[in-house]
Amino acid sequence: DELDVVEGMQFDRGYLSPYFINKPETGAVELESPFILLADKKISNIREMLPVLEAVAKAGKPLLIIAEDVEGEALATLVVNTMRGIVKVAAVKAPGFGDRRKAMLQDIATLTGGTVISEEIGMELEKATLEDLGQAKRVVINKDTTTIIDGVGEEAAIQGRVTQIRQQIEEATSDYDREKLQERVAKLAGGVAVIKVGAATEVEMKEK
Predict the structure, then answer these.
(1) Whole-angstrom Cα distance, residue 91 to residue 63?
(2) pTM score above 0.85
(3) What secondary structure letter does DSSP report for 94?
(4) Can you list the domains of the chain with their CATH numbers?
(5) Is the N end or the C end of the chain the one with fewer CB atoms within 10 Å?
(6) What would the mean pLDDT of 184-201 be, rounded to a whole number?
(7) Is the pLDDT of residue 100 over 80?
(8) What's the Rg (C-alpha) of the chain?
(9) What is the average pLDDT value for the chain, to the nearest integer?
(10) Among 108, 112, 95, which residue's Cα sits nearest to residue 34?
(11) Does residue 132 register a pLDDT over 80?
């Protein structure tokens, strides 16, 4: 088995429904070249998601939704659409809580070249287009983790974001804050080690 270190980020949130699993042998969800929707809100009403879902279905690519939560009717509809093969979707909760969650969504946006749909800055989910979505080469989601591999974000933007967080580390007053900020730098700047087992690749470890 070879060990490949790829550009990637892993965070501790798993799929919101086991019905998204498309690799029963590993119990994982694997999405190839997915679009990534980042929403700083709870999504419970499927109507506000329809325009972007239709656009993604037309583009013929899978979609990963990372939001504060996806619940109720919205989650049920996504599951049904996935099971019927209309559009391949998976949903996970965004990592962190409160302000840290907002910051981590922004980190993921930087990594994947997407925009966080945030009502605080007047953006509406219903008006989201494909241009707002992030992209990556591959996403692997297990029960407890999500790994984004080879996000399409620009290297300069990622480095800029890392520099910004390092500045916050300098200014941090508590060890806890400093530790959480350092974790974010590691996730943004780190790689993910992928073990190649024959033809299949298993995402194994967090950082190089």
Answers:
(1) 8
(2) yes
(3) P
(4) 2-203 (3.50.7.10)
(5) N
(6) 69
(7) yes
(8) 17
(9) 91
(10) 112
(11) yes
